[in-house]
Amino acid sequence: MTALRVLLARLLGRGRATDELDIEVAAHLELLAADLQRSGLSPDAARAEARRRLGNLTALHESYREQRRLPFLEPLTQDLAYALRQLRRSPGFALAAILTLALGIGANVAIYQALDAVLFRELPVHDPAGLVEIQLLEDGSPIHVSYPLFRELSARQQVLADIFTVSDFPLREAALRGRGAVRSVRGSLVSGSYFRALGVGVRAGRMLQPEDDRADAPPVAVISDAFWTREFERSPDALGQVLHINNTAATIIGVTPPEFFGETVGRAPDVWLPISLQPQLMPGDWLKQPGMNWLTVIGRLRPGMSRQQAQAAIRCIANSLGSRSRGWARRTPCTLLLRIAESAISRSASHNRCGCCSPSRDSPC
Amino acid sequence: MSMGNRSEVPYGTLDLMVLKTLDGMGQLHGYGIARRIEQVAEGALELNQGTIYPALLRLEQKGWIASEWGVSESNRKARYYSITQAGKKQLALEEGNWSRTVAMMARMLESES
Q1: Cβ of A232: how many Cβ atoms within 10 Å?
Q2: pTM listed for this prediction
Q3: Which helix (H) or strand (E) holds B12?
Q4: Which ranges of chain A does DSSP label H, i.e. alpha helix?
Q5: Chain B closest CA to A10's CA: distance in Å?
Q6: B65 to chain A, minimum CA–CA distance in Å?
Q7: ipTM exceeding 0.85?
Q8: What is the pLDDT of residues A236-268, one digit of tens each?
Q9: How far apart are CA A249 and CA A218, in angstroms?
Q10: Given an 8 Å threshold on Cβ–Cβ distance, is B63 in contact with A55?
Q11: Nearest residue on chain B to A35, judged by CA atoms?
């Protein structure tokens, strides 16, 4: 209780300051000297005697200061000192205790860091809640989309303000040559509207645009801030230099902002390349193969558009595509289902909320 | 029993003396309390007068006395102390303890002889 009272007094500004003691002591000395004078001493002798009677002033200040300290502090520091002495006497036990605590604390920190990255931190894109993923369903589970299907979706859909596709799977360990020893970098293939749809600003240079994502466009690349720091020490000369990735030369045209790490938490690419470069970067032209499902398709809802409305629109498109039996999915087209799901990059961590549906006869298509 | 720099008076009894003094005399400053204690002790007590200040601080921290600034007889700023309700209760408690202790010691010492 005393501790609380003292703390409260301190906080309310009623704690004792050291010079206040000086004032009290000065008053005390004066009164005492006056009394001694009255009993016959000379003024000087009275003052001297008064000072003597008051005792050692330094010691007084010391014990006053001690008393002023928060009362629980002294026993606390004593206990801590005792604990340390005891620990020093049995180092084995101390070590075991320390290791256990370290493991426990470390594990907790790691978990919270992961949670922070996934749940609590919002991705540095514009309005992540407005982003949705268009998923292809096979037997009720989402699978990746093929490039021709993506092109069809882009062309037909009107319900999304913007749509893009991304895949980091082919370039997960791309070979970077020409900058010392060959080493692997993490790359991401994206369609031309990727950065625009995400609403990502630029740290230096410019971002990929739809014009760069054409078969006849000169190969360009956007690098991450971390890669820029690692490889180029944040030098502005990086812009315009050529990266040799998987034997394809791409010119660096821009650097992403430092906090941007892509569209998926946990996979931070070093470099983004236009998807049209895919045939040059690896054997096989996947862009022309409807059976090759390797893409994630994400779009941004138009303002005021709900996911249900988008879902209905997508259903229409799915129906019209399916009826042409072009083999958009690995199986027969009648299993083609598209659904709008909450994009992986919107804040919530749960993706599998089922907004899905099956093509129904009474849909307005 | 001397405690070195601290008062010649055993630790707990100084508190009791201060409380009793303030209870009887109303508001006093530090010098006034010290002087009164010496008076009552009739010279049998050597009180290192400075030690009263940490004691007063301690009593105020415990909430048994309260203080406010005033002006001394020689027109100097001085802090005046008075006993609180809680202080009066504590005083009664300690007086009881003290009487019991004294009585017990008396019995103890009488029985020796």
Answers
A1: 17
A2: 0.51
A3: helix B11-25
A4: 2-11, 18-38, 43-54, 57-68, 73-89, 91-115, 147-156, 194-198, 225-232, 278-281, 307-322
A5: 11
A6: 13
A7: no
A8: 888 999 999 988 899 999 999 888 877 776 678
A9: 9
A10: no
A11: B35
